Amino acid sequence: MLTVDVWADVRCPWCWIGLRRLQRARSMIDEPVTVRRRSFLLEPQGPASPGRPTAQVATTEWGMSNEQWNSRRQAIEAEARSEGLRIRMDSALMFDSSPLHRLLKLAAETMDDDRAEDAWESAFAAHFERNEDLGDPDVLHQLASQWGLEEADVRRALLRERFTDEIAHDLDEARRLSVSSVPTVVAADGRRMRGHAPTAELAQFLRAGAL
User: Fold this and answer.
1) What is the pLDDT of residues 60-116, one digit of tens each?
2) Under 8 Å CB-to-CB from 144, ≥6 apart: which residues?
3) What is the four-CA torsion angle of 19, 22, 26, 29, rounded to 10 degrees?
């Protein structure tokens, strides 16, 4: 059994693309692979302008020209289409991903691995495909209900009564390992690679850990 840690943020489109590629890579090797999903917050203190569309933020707060943003957006959306994903970057809303990560930690604790992975998939789709406001507690409650999480547990997570320390630990571990971008896959032996690398490269990375 192989185990890898994957640092990711639901706000990162490459993390959704990487999730799909890693799923396929796991199916290409004989050894079972356990994926431990670790939280990485692109903006640990939350965005400066929650609720604003990404395109507006990119061309104001991030200092990108319209041409630069359109080029980046088109590249991301083209890569997504190659994985069967629909990503709408312009209208994806900025949000503090900490509460959602706490719900994902709850899913990992209470569900089997496949269902917990499905929760990540669902969260990415809500953000990038449907452009839901994941900073809205009501939206998060609805999402958690769809996953089958218990309402009392969801309330505790959203009130920061649970999983805050676990997320802080993930962030500390990322700093210790010098993980500075996502998605990043780290093997038990310390090897690492970009989590959105081509599927064949990810499969080779996993296969090397089985030798």
Assistant:
1) 999 999 999 999 999 999 999 999 999 999 999 999 999 999 999 999 999 999 999
2) 103, 106, 151, 154
3) 170
Q: Output the six-digit token pair for 159.
A: 């009130």
The pTM of this model reads 0.96
Closest CA to 95 of 59, 141, 142, 128: 128
Q: 116: which 2 tokens? A: 């917990």
Provide the residue type at 31 as one letter.
E
Tokens of 41: 């917050």
Give the C-alpha separation, 134 to 203, whole Å. Answer: 32
> What is the per-residue pLDDT for 209?
83
Structure tokens at 94: 């900025």
DSSP assignment of the chain equals -EEEEEEE-TT-HHHHHHHHHHHHHHHTSSS-EEEEEEE--SSTT--SSTTSBHHHHHTTTS---HHHHHHHHHHHHHHHHHTT-----TTPBP---HHHHHHHHHHHHHS-HHHHHHHHHHHHIIIIIS---TTSHHHHHHHHHHHT--HHHHHHHHTTSSSHHHHHHHHHHHHHTT--SSSEEEETTS-EEETTS-HHHHHHHHHHHT-
Alpha-carbon gap, residue 146 to 125, rounded angstroms: 13
User: What is the token pair recorded at 170?
Assistant: 């993930």
Q: Which amino acid is at 156?
A: R
The domains of the chain, with CATH numbers, are 2-209 (3.40.30.10)
